[in-house]
Specification:
With 126 residues, the protein is α+β, with helices and mostly antiparallel strands. The longest helix has 12 residues. The protein is elongated and about 65 Å long.
Length: 126
């Protein structure tokens, strides 16, 4: 798969036009694109007269290695990075207490989630 970043599409174009814009960016035919996956979509509204969607997409194409060689100098067209597997570990020994997490912000909720995924039963105090 090929990752295309900074693919800009005018705000008034439908999302279905994304495949044609990707084919145009890769200088290939639309029929050569086998699949397209949107990884990130943002709106660039810094210029009020030219509002755009900015995409990061993963594209499967027919001649992937040839296209990657052709765009080796382009930092916005790269091979899709391999996914990083982060296994959820479990606490090996049984704890006689429940860990206490104090607060109610996003970091507290994330810490409590991690503790729960490790097999503990966190107590959240606001």
């Amino acid at each position: 798969m090929i990752r295309i970043s900074e693919l800009r599409i005018p705000f008034n174009k439908p999302q279905e036009a994304l495949q044609s814009y990707a084919a145009q960016r890769l200088s290939c035919d639309e029929r050569d694109i086998l699949s397209l996956t949107i990884r990130r979509r943002a709106i660039d509204a810094r210029n009020k007269r030219s509002i755009q969607f900015v995409y990061i997409i993963d594209v499967a194409v027919v001649n992937e290695t040839e296209l990657l060689e052709r765009f080796a100098h382009d930092k916005h067209i790269t091979a899709m990075p391999a996914p990083v597997a982060r296994p959820v570990t479990r606490v090996m020994r049984a704890c006689s207490y429940r860990p206490v997490v104090v607060g109610s912000g996003p970091a507290v909720m994330f810490a409590a989630l991690q503790l729960a995924q490790w097999g503990l039963q966190p107590l959240i105090i606001e």
